[in-house]
Amino acid sequence: METMVIAGLILALIAAVILYKVLKTIKNMVVNTVIGLIILLAAKFVLGLNIAINVITILICAIAGVVGALIVILLSYLGVGF
User: Fold this and answer.
1) Residue 72 to residue 57: CA distance in whole angstroms
2) Distance between alpha carbon 73 and the CA centroid of its chain, in Å?
């Protein structure tokens, strides 16, 4: 009986650690997305670039953050995409 309790506690601890890592990753992605979108909107309105805010640009900003937003701006400025 005690073995089952110890095993349950160990499983609960492992689940808590995994949940913490997932939530921390999601938080970082949300922060990257928000900062990237702010940069894209600033470039759109200040520089007058025609940047489409869609799922692809949001994913690029979520994954790459500020660097991704700068890449999207550069590609838009060069007329390659977005």
Assistant:
1) 7
2) 17
Cα of 46 vs its chain's centroid, Å: 24
Residue 1 confidence (pLDDT):
66
- Average pLDDT (6-33) is 86
Q: Which two tokens stand for residue 63?
A: 């994954």
**Runs of H (alpha helix) within the chain:** 2-46, 55-64, 66-78
Tokens (6 digits) for 28: 């970082």
Provide mean pLDDT across the span 1-25.
84
Contact partners, residue 21, CB within 8 Å, separation at least 6: none
CA distances from 7 to 1, 4, 10, 13, 72 (A): 10, 5, 5, 10, 49
pTM of the complete model: 0.70
